[in-house]
């Protein structure tokens, strides 16, 4: 049994309550005054303990006695205290299951109509962010095996992380394997560091890469959520098995190349970030493109490029990219962030 705190939260029985319950079990029946004497506590403490046990149905008054109390079986107490509410909850859950089954029974009709219109089966475009989030929450609630997430763009906004943390911790607590990919630049974001520390401590796995292929979430290798390229408030729900399997394969390849997330400074991450920038420079990418793909600000990106050119004595961005690409990452050390301006990685 449990007791309820001042705001309705459930906690374990207090030690004095357990001692009192044990004493009543051993002596058959007792009064609050006798209980106080036997336990060596004040009358007021004994009365509070008795009130707790009466509330939890673990004690009951002896009929026809003058204030004597006797113990009740914990199973009986639980049935009296939560049985009615538990039955109501079961009925409600059964009703929700019937509603879901009644609606999803129409899926074949919906998919057949889409095929007649030339649409690809297993793909839904949702034009409302609220509906997308509702579908994600529903899929997360039914996920039982694995959740794969890709979050490009550097550190995530603190508000997004605060909303995601309870859902993600709930997934992990149910035994779901949770793997998340970020970009290297996310390591320099305090909110993302805090979120990652909590998720990793709970058993989640987080890794980073210099460049990612796009945002997505996949539940149980059955349902994938993707962004709509020209509408940030919309989303694509993908259930076609072959397409979802392909996305899982792409995720697996990126995961094998990624580095485990660490909140402390990592020379590997700094060098990997530098190598990615060098490759993009050698390919002729513009500063704006590099910054966007690596999830960093344009100012920070240009600072990195300027430092690289200065160190190498390069006279052009292409020459700097070529020289850096020709060198191993270890040959081009990067000073720790603590010695740099506080503008990001």
TrEMBL record:
Q: Offer one example of a GO biological process linked to this entry.
A: regulation of DNA-templated transcription
- Where is the HTH luxR-type domain positioned along the sequence? 265-324
- Pfam families xrefs: GerE
Per its UniProt record, what InterPro entries does this chain match? Answer: Sig_transdc_resp-reg_C-effctor, TrmB-like, Tscrpt_reg_LuxR_C, WH-like_DNA-bd_sf
Entry's SMART domains?
Answer: HTH_LUXR (SM00421)
Gene3D superfamilies per the UniProt record, alphabetical: Winged helix-like DNA-binding domain superfamily/Winged helix DNA-binding domain
Q: What domain of life does the native source organism fall in?
A: Bacteria
- Record's protein name: HTH luxR-type domain-containing protein
User: Which species is this UniProt entry from?
Assistant: Streptomyces termitum
Top-level taxonomy:
Bacteria, Bacillati, Actinomycetota, Actinomycetes, Kitasatosporales
């Amino acid at each position: 049994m449990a007791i309820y705190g001042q705001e309705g939260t459930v906690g374990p029985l207090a030690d004095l309550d357990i001692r009192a319950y044990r004493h009543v079990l051993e002596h058959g029946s007792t009064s609050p005054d006798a209980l106080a004497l036997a336990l060596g506590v004040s009358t007021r403490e004994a009365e509070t303990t008795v009130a707790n046990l009466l509330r939890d149905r673990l004690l009951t008054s002896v009929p026809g006695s003058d204030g004597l109390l006797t113990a009740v079986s914990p199973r009986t107490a639980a049935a009296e205290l939560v049985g009615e509410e538990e039955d109501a909850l079961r009925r409600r859950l059964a009703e929700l299951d019937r509603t879901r089954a009644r609606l999803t029974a129409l899926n074949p009709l919906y998919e057949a109509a889409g095929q007649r219109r030339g649409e690809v089966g297993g793909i839904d475009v949702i034009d409302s962010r609220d509906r997308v989030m509702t579908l994600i929450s529903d899929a997360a609630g039914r996920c039982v095996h694995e959740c794969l997430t890709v979050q490009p763009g550097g550190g995530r906004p603190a508000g997004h992380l605060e909303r995601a943390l309870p859902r993600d911790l709930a997934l992990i607590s149910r035994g779901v394997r949770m793997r998340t990919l970020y970009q290297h630049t996310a390591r320099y974001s305090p909110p993302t560091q805090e979120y990652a520390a909590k998720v990793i401590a709970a058993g989640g796995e987080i890794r980073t890469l210099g460049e990612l292929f796009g945002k997505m979430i996949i539940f149980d290798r059955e349902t994938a959520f993707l962004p709509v390229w020209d509408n940030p408030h919309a989303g694509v729900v993908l259930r076609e098995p072959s397409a979802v399997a392909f996305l899982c394969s792409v995720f697996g390849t990126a995961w094998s190349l990624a580095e485990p997330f660490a909140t402390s400074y990592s020379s590997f991450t700094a060098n990997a970030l530098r190598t990615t920038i060098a490759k993009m420079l050698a390919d002729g990418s513009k500063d704006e493109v590099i910054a966007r793909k690596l999830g960093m600000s344009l100012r920070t990106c240009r600072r990195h490029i300027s430092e690289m050119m200065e160190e190498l004595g390069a006279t052009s961005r292409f020459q700097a990219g070529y020289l850096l690409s020709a060198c191993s990452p270890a040959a081009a050390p990067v000073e720790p962030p603590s010695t740099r301006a506080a503008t990001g990685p």
